[in-house]
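re: that chain from earlier
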Amino acid sequence: MRIEGVVLAAGQGTRMVSKRPKVLHGILGLPMVVYVVRALRGRTEGMWVVTGHRGEDVEGRLGNLGLSFVRQDSQRGTGDALRVVLSHLSAPWVLVAPGDMPLLRGGSLDSMIEYHARGGLDVTVLTTTLEDPAGYGRILREGDLIKAIVEDSEAGPREREVREVNTGVYLFSLDILKKALPLLSPHPPKGEYYLPDVVSWGVREGYKVGAWQVGDPQEGLGVNSRAQLAVAWSVLRDRKNKALMEAGVTLVEPSSVYVDVDVDVGWDTMVYPWVQLQGKTSIGEGCVIFSHVRILDSRLGAGTVVLDSSLVEGAVLEGGVRVGPMARLRPGTWLDRGVKIGNFVEVKKSHVGEGSKASHLSYIGDATLGKGVNVGAGTITCNYDGFAKHPTIVGDGVFIGSDTQLVAPLKVGSQALIGAGSTITKDVPENALALSRAHQKVIPGKGMDYYRKRRGG
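^ sequence. v structure.
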């Protein structure tokens, strides 16, 4: 079957109470409409997205996905939305889905398409059964075929008892759309055109209209409010975490771990509670991520350990790195194998060589550190002069004593030794000792007892 896809993404979503278009609200790193696009992709030859409210925002966000767009200037219902794209369609079959159904799976669409083809149907509606069907159009059957779809607002008492509902996903023949869409009438009070009316028209005209009921009712849920968005977050989190565990990842408390849908995690990695792995992140095999860690757009090599309450953003950590607790790695950080970044250490836009360590209370910014460098507690690279950032370059095997300030631009040669408490403003040659300390003066008898007596204490 040659099928074109149409994603309906024009609505404002007033119940979201947001300036942002509803379909751009994110779940696990992606706007909800992208989940719908991914579900349709591979099952359609091309895909159209109907935009409307703040359409430029939707089109801008989806612009790199190889989609085509058409604008519904006035949001007059789903029937009108499909009507504005009708002239662009050419395949004999059209698969239509709302842009606010992020729980829809591609496998369910495969089953729906197979059922449609096997039954020689003209229209197939994807349905589901809900415990509370309020707000959804009810499916009225006659055997395996549909005889009507009744909108919730127009349903009578007996129809309201029906729990099989319309999800808003359809497979139409293009021929039916061309005949039925121009005949739609607006519904009061808003004057909207309803897509289910095409189904009703097809039934009246003697076309075969079937219903494929999806097994998991969650897939049929749309997101129309913040509360429903939270439900979608929970479902997609559980799906992702289940897939990770099936692939050999240990999640100590899965309900507290949020892993974006496109994050990769290697087997035998252990993730403790209250961890967030976000964006374009990749975690290698055998890593350990402790509690309250957030990792964004970063790559961690095998055997890396990130201790509690650390933030890693836009960084690359080669294998066997140890970070934290309470460390911050900012964008542009690259840590070679075996590097140790300890508590209250911040690294920004710096390359730290193999086996080097900064264990406590330090800032490393715009710096290049060689192999085996020891950065003492309280060390700071003074990289900003108030106007521009400047680099610090430290050679292999350098030992930097505690409470040192390295005033950039600066080069420290390999195997150099920086005395504790120094402020280094000039380049240091290889294998040299650099000191910068004021002369210490000791005055006997002027300790605390002296000051207490003077103050009458």
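DSSP finds nine helices and 41 strands in the chain.
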